[in-house]
Structure formats: C-alpha cells, structure tokens
Amino acid sequence: MPVAHLFTISLLLLAGLAPAGAAPRAQPAPLQGVVTQVSDGDTLRFTPAGQAPIVVRLANIDAPEICQAWGAEARRALTDLALNKTATLRPTGRDSYGRAVGVLVVDGVDVAQSLVEGGHAWSLRGRNDVGPLVKQERMAKALNRGLHEGGAAIKPADFRRTHGPCVGNGAQSGAAPAAVVAAAPVPPARSTTAPTAAAAYRCDGRTRCLQMHSCDEAKYFLAHCPGVKMDGDHDGIPCEDQRCR
Known about the structure:
By secondary structure, this protein is α+β, with helices and mostly antiparallel strands. It has helices at residues 3-14, 71-82, 111-117, 134-142, 156-163, 215-224; strands spanning 31-40, 43-48, 54-58, 61-62, 86-94, 100-106, 109-110, 122-123, 181-182. Strand 6 and strand 7 (109-110) form a beta hairpin. The protein starts with a helix and ends in a 21-residue tail after the last helix.
C-alpha cells in the first residue's frame, strides 16, 4: 500500500473517522432484566434474564454518598424508580472499581436523568463544566428540588475529600446507619473470623481475597477500593471460594 494512503488512513483514525468500508465499532447489546437490589443513589444490582446478577453504577450521574446529607433520600428515590422492576440496561463500560457502568431505562424513563431532575443527584461533568445532564441539574437547582433546597449541598467528590469514604454500609458520625435495600432478605454470609468491634473498613492497598478477614470486608473493598482482584466472574460477589461462600 502506498505510504501516502497509509498516512491518510492514520489521519482519519486520529480524527475518530474510518475509511470507507471499515466496520463501525460494535456497541454492547442492551440487557433485559430486573433490578434486585439498591445500594445507594447511583449503585444497584441488576439481574439479566437467565444470567447472574451484576453490580451497576448508573452512567452520567453522581449521587450523594449514603452517609452524607441526602444520601438516604437519593437511595429511596432510586428504590422507588427501579427496585423489583423490569428494566433495560445499556452498558457503557466499567468504572475504576470494576463495576459495570450503564444507562438504565424503566418503563421508558431514563432513571439517571429522572434522579437529576428530581434533585437526587448531580450530572457528571467534564471540561468547561460540561456534562450530559447539566441542563436538568440546573433546572432542579433553580426549583430548589431535593438536595438543592437551601443551597448548601456538597458534591460527593468534595465530601470524600473532606470526610473520606463511608464506613461499610453505615454512616459517618452524625448520620444514621443505612442498610442496603434489596428485593428479598438475604442471610448474612458466613465469615471465617469474627468481625472487628468497630467494623470500620478503609481502603489500605489490599487487593486480594486472602488479605480479607471477612465477607463483609471483601464486599466493602470491592465496592469502594481501586484495583481489587476479588470478583473474577463479575457477578458482584467477591471471594466466593474463600470468604463469601
């Protein structure tokens, strides 16, 4: 192939274009299933038909941490919108914790957009304060909806920098503990060691199941800590052979 032609193709690829006849990049197929658990205002467990459940982080939004102001209300809003309901999930990738990221649609409604419109979450933002749902967020703020009432809401990223992550499924001092909302009660997983008195888990660089002391600790690390290697089958349950039998 002539060098000039190769150079032209390279320019097209750099520009995000493809030469004529090139196949477009395949997008993951939408999944049909049921939302079977809600963890917080933007994280849930989705069970596709005939498949194992997967942990999903809603795309395009950031809801309050469960232990910060409006965290419980945001989770309740997501529960009302999606729990036990048939939904369509359009996967868009994975986050730094290994969770699936995607757009969830229930009864024709984009759940993430509905949360932002109701004042239960912020739009994610990029450069120049641009984000997919900034328009809806500004409207919710103008109408003093949800967390915007009073104008003192703190974005989750700022909260984490100041307070650190929430401790397990509970809360920082001053906020009430919050349990995961599930479709049906799940018996507690058997742990190989007794839990610590404080049960205060924090990311400390551990990444593997053999470094965990209990199933609860493994679940916390999977949900909150980067670089973990505890869920090889990506079903949202860590350390199934070692801790969470």
